[in-house]
Write a structure and sequence with these properties.
globular, 8 helices, 8 strands
Length: 235
């Protein structure tokens, strides 16, 4: 590991609103802040929004700045990535932003039923092969996982440069009869963008746009009582 990365990991541990639980701390157990993020971390009862696979945290920080009356937690396993957003949050005293370093597969250990109001998934790995579709963060398996802590009727946002992931997720949402609030396969060519926060651009998003890529966006609701199913494979 390079010296710069080591320095970042050391600095990350000093930021007040960065949480890096060890495997032994979880290991099938409930994290000590589960159900208490609003009261013990943010000290308020404002809505709680997660960004899963937050990378460098640009979206988490952008959302927190745009919505001071909401709480935001960026989640990613890569500490070297989280460092940038966490450092910005610390230096600019953005008190409604925090970062959690863990694997998305373990996310239900950290949040209680109905604790989260919205989830953002921004430019995740599209897992392009058929055999890896269960690893997509918008697969039926992951959406079912989110049902365990997302409030009933909570909102999911997907923003991606991957047409495959967008079309897959849109088909899955329709297959499960979930309510679609907004959909676009070329977001920035729309004249009716639903919210100014869609103008927040991550480093990778700007890179994709500079290369002429289209950006897909999907916003939909998840009902907690509806069982979700994967799209059957074509014979």
């Amino acid at each position: 590991m390079g010296k710069d990365k080591l320095r970042r990991f050391e600095e990350l541990g000093k930021f007040e609103r960065v949480f890096q639980p060890g495997i032994e701390e979880i290991n099938g157990k409930q994290y000590h802040l589960r159900g208490k993020w609003k009261s013990e971390v943010f000290k308020n009862n404002n809505p709680l929004i997660l960004e899963l696979g937050c990378g460098k945290g640009e979206y988490t920080i952008g959302l927190a700045k745009n919505f001071p009356d909401k709480n935001f937690i960026g989640v990613d396993i890569k500490g070297a990535r989280i460092w940038k957003g966490a450092k910005t949050s610390h230096e600019e005293k953005i008190l409604n932003a925090a970062f959690l370093r863990t694997r998305i597969e373990l996310i239900s250990s950290f949040f209680a039923m109905g604790e989260v109001d919205e989830i953002w998934v921004t430019f995740p790995d599209p897992q392009p092969t058929e055999r890896r579709k269960k690893k997509r963060l918008t697969s039926a398996g992951f959406l079912t996982l989110y049902q365990g802590f997302l409030k009933d009727g909570g909102i999911m946002h997907l923003k991606t440069d991957s047409d495959l992931l967008y079309e897959y997720t849109l088909s899955l949402v329709r297959f499960n009869s979930l309510e679609i609030l907004f959909e676009s396969s070329d977001l920035y060519k729309r004249s009716d963008l639903p919210d100014p926060i869609l103008g927040i651009k991550t480093y990778y998003e700007q890179k994709f746009l500079d290369q002429g890529s289209n950006i897909n966006y999907l916003k939909f609701r998840i009902k907690s009582q509806i069982p979700l199913h994967e799209i059957p494979e074509k014979e």
